[in-house]
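name: query_chain
kind: protein
chains: 1
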Amino acid sequence: MQQFDAIVIGTGVAGKKTAEQLHQAGKSVAIIDKLPFGGTCSQRGC
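structure:
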């Protein structure tokens, strides 16, 4: 079983930024989203 320091739900702007900041701080991060990476704005329009 793989373990992570943090789990980010959603790959929109906020989720991506949060995951990047955690990664830069040396944390292992899992990202969960049922839709393609990028969130609503980039994939379907805000």
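note: Residues 13-24 form the longest helix (12 residues).
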